[in-house]
């Protein structure tokens, strides 16, 4: 293990889509730090760039999307088995999307689970052959060994009769079983980072509970880092150690799981938390129905480039001449709690003393 | 169009203080889909999507219908409107013009009349609107088809409906692609409400929406319910949403109704082990550690080949011998609280724990 205990670092990542209507800044300056054995939750509404961030890490951004700038540093030295020709510290943004280097990382070091378990598997090949493909691609093993390993993986994700399921086709499995099989496939090469993009959104609550439980167990066994993308704040509360809240291509707030729920700082995070129906409210109310809090307006269309803070047209704390003019900087408002909002900007004097302290 | 109540204010006057009477009631509702095999499409079995389901929805209330995918909740909703023909059973509806009628036995003409008063909104705001029709065509379609309004009057009614759901009437000539998911869901709602119905089947109306938009639509549904005296059957799988909007909740498992109770009672003291497991599985937006979850073993049973006795017995944590052989009855445990479990009265099941 390296001393700094970081597996991957995303620095000022910008991924844009050049479409005839204009430029969609799907990811516009995202910074993230991913640590081994920890789960980083990424929350946000559709179109906030959470999935594109994940795809950028895998270099799977579909055309016409392109990484325009920033770095994705992968610390390969964290992994003890560095049998490959990779150097220790790799900037993933510099690799070609179909180069040997990225293919050695993809599925092997960094692996991904998608939302739709049916779409993640080929319908015309057996579950086992698809898992074996991943294994034989990255490891020098015989067919028989790969098959044994596939069965072992299916057993690890608690599928009943793994030696039979290995020869089943995806359609023969239920949604929850399929998602287990996809997780087995993703984990077949012991990845150090698992990116899970809404892995339980298509599943029922009881199945979701099983899958989340399974992911937590496997994480503990493999000391793997998880980047968990979801729009469901309930799932985030259960899975994440740290949370990054995204809005329109930017991380607007990032801190540990407790702070985000107990002391949210960004007005968007605050509004998001207030807009979900709370069971506690329902259970303690007597008679009178309550209205949910809403965020006024809606997410602007992706082609408009807003001046200043992207949230300013919807923000209840909007400060004219500031929020609509200046893009807020990343501010460490409290220890390990960063936020991009002018409300927490230090006064000029404070800024001066901080600058002096840093010099 | 004259007999039909025409303005919202009238609806208010008519409906406000008429609670405590079932608007919709089903008795042993069944929908079995045949499984066909081979060249001659021989029927080799049946998928019992909805099997002997009985429930009622009181006038002006919201009944939440929950259950996992494939449990028959959508099919139940569709049978109520006879969007699909039930295999057997009765569906009683209190129509303002026809009186109390059994929808399962209505002829075409009567069905058109009844469907003025019972309407549906759908889950997917993208698939449920024809991309080649303007909002005027979409929202006006039921008014035209039912002969309620035409021409200028139609436009006036459509404008009124759009305004009601929070859309600008000027948008009437635009196509659905110009609108976001939340706005499209409003269009679907305007279409459903156009003939001023009494009863709305909402099939997962917010599950395709983002949380902030979901809150807007849920608030709108509640406002409209109060304003127009609507009655909802709210089909959903998100239990927090259902708890928020429903007066009573019904739980289905493999085509059967397993529990019905007033919302708070169901969530705080469930009587069926399946409901207990559901409650325990709800992901809560609260990072403090909680007591251990009840994880269910195995998979949901197949409605084509259900287990013997109680359908839930292979996954139940409280199973006894009788559960394997005898199907439990759907019985009233306490006033208004029904459960289908042999051990409903003896088990002390835990509901959702509250912070308070």
Q: Can you give keywords for this protein?
A:
heterodimer; A: 359 residues; alpha/beta; Rossmann fold; four-stranded antiparallel sheet; 12 strands; 32% helix; 22% strand; B: 356 residues; 2 domains; eight-stranded mixed sheet; 24% strand; globular; disordered N terminus
Q: Assign the structural class of chain A, choosing from mainly alpha, mainly beta, alpha/beta, alpha+beta, or little secondary structure.
A: alpha/beta
Write the H/E string of chain B, N to C: HEEEHEEHEHHHEHEHEEHHHEE
Number of domains of chain B: 2
State the distance separating the first and last CA atoms of chain B: 52 Å
Annotation field: number of helices of chain B? 11
Q: Output the CATH topology of the largest domain in chain B.
A: Rossmann fold
Structural class of chain B: alpha/beta
Number of helices of chain A: 12
How many runs of DSSP E, i.e. beta strands of chain B? 12
CATH class category name of the domain at 1-109 and 221-359 in chain A: Alpha Beta
Strand adjacency order, main sheet of chain B? 6-7-8-3-9-10-12-11
CATH topology-level fold name of the domain at 1-109 and 221-359 in chain A: Rossmann fold
Provide the CATH superfamily of the domain at 1-109 and 221-359 in chain A. Answer: P-loop containing nucleotide triphosphate hydrolases
The number of strands of chain A is 12
SSE topology string of chain A = EEEHEEHEHHHHEHEHEEHHHEEH
Rg for CA atoms of chain A: 22 Å
Uncertain runs of chain B are: 1-19
Task: Write up this protein.
The complex is a heterodimer of chains A (359) and B (356). In chain A, a hairpin with a 2-residue loop joins strand 9 and strand 10. Chain A contains twelve helices and twelve strands. The mean pLDDT of chain A is 87. Chain A has a domain at 1-109 and 221-359: 3-Layer(aba) Sandwich (Rossmann fold), CATH 3.40.50. In chain A, the strands form two sheets. An eight-stranded mixed beta sheet of chain A has the order 6-7-8-3-9-10-12-11, with helices on both faces. A four-stranded antiparallel beta sheet of chain A has the order 2-1-4-5. The radius of gyration of chain A is 22 Å and the shape is globular. In chain A, helix 3 (127-138) crosses helix 4 (143-156), helix 3 (127-138) packs parallel to helix 6 and helix 4 (143-156) packs across helix 6. Chain A is α/β, with parallel strands linked by helices and 359 residues long. Chain A has helices at 50-58, 100-105, 127-138, 143-156, 162-165, 175-187, 205-222, 233-239, 257-262, 267-274, 279-284, 348-358, and strands spanning 8-19, 22-34, 39-43, 65-75, 89-91, 110-113, 193-197, 225-230, 242-247, 250-256, 331-334, 337-339. Chain A starts with 7 loop residues before the first strand and ends with a helix. With 356 residues, chain B is α/β, with parallel strands linked by helices. Chain B folds into two domains: 8-246, Rossmann fold, CATH 3.40.50.300; 273-339, no CATH class. Chain B has helices at 8-15, 73-80, 108-117, 135-145, 151-164, 181-193, 211-228, 239-245, 263-268, 273-281, 321-325, and strands at 22-37, 42-58, 62-66, 88-95, 99-102, 118-121, 199-203, 231-235, 248-253, 256-262, 331-334, 337-339. In chain B, the strands form two sheets. In chain B, strands 6-7-8-3-9-10-12-11 form an eight-stranded mixed beta sheet, with helices on both faces. In chain B, strands 2-1-4-5 form a four-stranded antiparallel beta sheet. In chain B, a hairpin with a 3-residue loop joins strand 4 and strand 5. In chain B, helix 4 packs parallel to helix 6 and helix 6 (181-193) runs parallel beside helix 7. Mean pLDDT of chain B is 88; it is low at 1-19. At the A-B interface, helix 6, helix 7, helix 8, helix 9 and helix 10 of A face helix 6, helix 7, helix 8, helix 9 and helix 10 of B.
């Amino acid at each position: 293990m390296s001393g700094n205990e970081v597996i991957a670092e995303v620095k000022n990542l910008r991924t844009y889509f050049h479409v005839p209507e204009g430029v969609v800044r799907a990811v516009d300056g995202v910074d993230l730090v991913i640590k081994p054995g920890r789960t980083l939750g990424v929350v946000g509404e559709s179109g906030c760039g959470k999935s594109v961030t994940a795809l950028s890490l895998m270099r799977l951004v579909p055309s016409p999307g392109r990484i325009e700038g920033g770095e994705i540093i992968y610390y390969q030295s964290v992994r003890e088995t560095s049998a490959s020709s990779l150097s220790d510290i790799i900037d993933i943004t510099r690799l070609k999307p179909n180069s040997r280097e990225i293919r050695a990382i993809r599925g092997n070091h960094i692996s991904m689970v998608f939302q739709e378990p049916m779409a993640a598997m080929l319908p015309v090949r057996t579950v086992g052959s698809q898992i074996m493909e991943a294994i034989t691609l990255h490891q020098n093993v015989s067919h028989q060994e790969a098959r044994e390993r596939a069965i072992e993986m299916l057993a690890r994700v608690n599928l009943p009769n793994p030696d039979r399921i290995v020869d089943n086709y995806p359609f023969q499995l239920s949604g929850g079983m399929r998602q287990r099989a996809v997780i087995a496939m993703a984990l077949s090469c012991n990845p150090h980072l698992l990116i899970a993009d809404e892995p339980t959104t298509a599943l029922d609550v009881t199945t979701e509970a099983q899958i989340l439980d399974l992911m937590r167990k496997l994480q503990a066994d493999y000391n793997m880092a998880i980047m968990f993308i979801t729009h469901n704040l309930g799932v985030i509360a259960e899975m994440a150690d740290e949370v990054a809240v995204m809005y329109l291509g930017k991380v607007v707030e990032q801190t540990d799981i407790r702070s985000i729920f107990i002391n949210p700082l960004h007005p968007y995070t605050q509004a998001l938390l207030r807009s979900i129906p709370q069971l506690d409210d329902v259970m303690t109310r007597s008679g009178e129905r309550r209205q949910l809090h809403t965020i006024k307006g809606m997410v602007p269309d992706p082609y408009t480039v807003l001046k200043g803070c992207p949230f300013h047209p919807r923000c209840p704390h909007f400060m004219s001449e500031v929020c609509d003019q200046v893009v807020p900087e990343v501010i460490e408002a409290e220890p390990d709690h960063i936020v991009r909002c002018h409300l927490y900007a230090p006064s000029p004097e404070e800024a001066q003393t901080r600058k002096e302290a840093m010099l | 169009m004259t007999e039909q109540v025409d303005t919202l204010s009238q609806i208010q006057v008519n409906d406000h203080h008429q609670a405590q009477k079932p608007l919709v009631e089903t008795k042993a509702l069944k929908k079995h889909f045949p499984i066909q095999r081979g060249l001659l499409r021989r029927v080799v079995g049946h998928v019992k999507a909805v099997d002997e389901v009985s429930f009622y929805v009181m006038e002006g209330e919201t009944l939440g219908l929950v259950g996992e995918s494939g449990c028959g909740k959508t099919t139940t909703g569709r049978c109520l409107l006879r969007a699909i023909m039930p295999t057997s059973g009765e569906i009683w509806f209190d129509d303002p013009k026809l009186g109390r009628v059994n929808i399962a036995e209505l002829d075409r003409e009567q069905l058109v009349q009844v469907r003025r008063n019972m309407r549906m909104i759908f889950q997917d705001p993208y698939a449920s609107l024809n991309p080649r029709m303007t909002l005027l065509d979409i929202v006006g379609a039921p008014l035209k088809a039912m002969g309620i309004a035409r021409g200028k009057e139609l436009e006036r009614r459509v404008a009124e409906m759009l305004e009601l759901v929070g859309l600008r009437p000027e948008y009437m000539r635009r196509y659905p692609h110009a609108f976001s998911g939340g706005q499209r869901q409003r269009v679907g709602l305007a279409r459903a409400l156009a003939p001023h119905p009494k009863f709305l089947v909402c099939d997962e109306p917010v599950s395709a929406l983002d949380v902030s938009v979901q809150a807007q639509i849920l608030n709108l549904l509640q406002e409209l319910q109060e304003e127009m005296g609507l009655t909802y059957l709210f089909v959903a799988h998100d239990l927090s949403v259902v708890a928020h909007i429903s007066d009573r909740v019904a739980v289905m498992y493999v085509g059967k109704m397993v529990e019905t109770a007033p919302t708070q009672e169901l969530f705080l003291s469930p009587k069926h082990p399946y409901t207990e497991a559901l409650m325990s599985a709800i992901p809560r937006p609260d990072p403090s550690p909680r007591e251990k979850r009840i994880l269910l073993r195995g998979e949901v049973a197949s409605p084509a080949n259900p287990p013997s006795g109680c359908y839930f017995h292979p996954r139940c944590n409280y199973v006894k011998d009788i559960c394997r052989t005898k199907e439990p009855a759907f019985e009233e445990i306490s006033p208004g609280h029904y459960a289908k479990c042999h051990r409903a009265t003896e088990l002390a099941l835990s509901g959702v724990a509250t912070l308070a």
